[in-house]
Amino acid sequence: MKASDYIVQFLVDQGIDKAFGYIGGAVAHLYDSFDKNTGIEIVNTIHEQGAGFAAEGYARVSGKTGVATATSGPGATNLITPIGSCFFDSISTLFITGQVNTYEYKYDTPVRQIGFQETDIVSIVKPITKYAVMIDMIQNLRYELEKAYFLTQNGRKGPVLIDIPMNIQRTDFNPSEQKSFFESDEYKMMRIQGDKIDFEKIVEMLRVSQRPIILVGGGSRLSSLAPEAIHRLLEKSNLPVVYSLMGKDVVKDDYKYNFGLIGSYGNRYSNLALANADLIIVLGSRLDTRQTGTDLKTFARAAKIIHVDIDVNELDSKIKADVTLHCDIADFINTLSHYDFKLNLGQWLEKLVTYKQNYSSTTGIDGKAKVPNQIIQWIAQSSSDHDMICVDVGQHQMWVAQSFETKADQRVLFSGGMGAMGFALPTAIGATIGTKKRALVIVGDGGFQMNIQELEVIKRRNLPIKVFIMNNANLGMVRQFQEIYFEQRYIGTQKDYSVPNFASIANAYGLKSSTISTIEEISQKIHETLLSDEAEIINICLQEQMTTVEPKLIVNKPIEDMYPFLEREEFNAQMIIKPLEH
Fold this sequence. Notes:
Number of domains: 3
Number of helices: 25
Strand order of the largest sheet: 2-1-3-4-6-5
Strand content: 15-25%
CATH class of the largest domain: Alpha Beta
CATH architecture of the largest domain: 3-Layer(aba) Sandwich
CATH superfamily of the largest domain: Thiamin diphosphate (ThDP)-binding fold, Pyr/PP domains
Helix content: 25-40%
């Protein structure tokens, strides 16, 4: 068979039924092979970045490896942002780029370029992939393809890239005559061997703890069996839970002792809960400063920490834990659940419930409604149990993290480590095409403009995607930063920035749209819109343009002491551990 036919059939054999790309000369053979194979469909986007994010969305919701392809040169370099997004958020993805013929490639020749659109994409993306290789010898194709796929799924998941010259793609190929990676010594060495765990010690730490809490990170979602295992443990133990941004949808909000988002823009009640714990079980979180605060000495200062992660390099890299465990989270939780430990949590849970009652995510400490958070809450209330919530980057991301109460089978997809504006719309395309479920895109006016061209794919394929634009006519997150640190000089966020007529743009793509602004309109329209699956763009013009995300952690403050600050008497009354000097 032709080599490109083999590549596509290999993907089908792994259960992958969708791939995403943008056609170009250097992938024409590959595209033709996708088109001929009835076991898989290639989805053509309008920009390679859209294809990369769509592959990421597909991977996040399906658990399969997402595949994106692009031509050489600018096609390949346009994939860099989604590749980085998948690397930092540990998403299983395979990026396949075309390359010029091997006889046109410069290799070590001291010239800039020989072939048209020749670009050394492998060297460019090596720092943000688990593995990147150019397959320039046909006898290496089977081995390298198998290895690349294996690495997307093994251990801490992530992206790989294979770069395939055109003459390799069109070569006749017999895989049975070639060496298999899965029969190699390299494969045997790569398989993850987790730590042997002293569960008796961990159970004893739980038994003597008076204020235990579980911190659920993104790794808890990436371990495919972990969410169900965590659910069973919580049913048995009533242990309280908080989560990082990337752990948002692991434990649903109907769990009575889910105490929400922690960190720089976390809920006040969540940070109070974490700060006052005496034992923290960290599941798949890297404990970066957006979770711990910038002064690491103040974090968990009265607590013991058990840190579980599939990536040994994340253990003790930022916060020193009392127990570190290099293993799969599902394996850890499933074994822990077999132990009989009776916990007396009544007083602790009562305190945490009081925190949540006193410091609502939709009301400020001044008693005034936080309108953007309320809008997010309305979207959540009117959403269906199986919706996929795809969220862009900006203030609205934090409003969703604080106030969107997840239901049943809902997924919430954030761009975490990369924090890429333009993420949500194409990610929703991949998620919807991969699952045939409805997606709700929540995006700001800035992020929406970054990949707005992918509206054409929504129309062309009649996808059930609802887009809610939180439109404050400025780049709110950075503008809020400028407000605090740059004496309200709003260059780039308000000054020399503008917003188009989104309704007119939606209409140009043939999509239904509406613009709303009053509170009454917004509440009613959200409910009406979510009664159907018809693609629609809802432009929500926020009457208060100078929006803020509150509460917010200030540099060098401990996580429990957030701005706007509580009166000291009230703050001290909420603390179980000794407060730090103000």
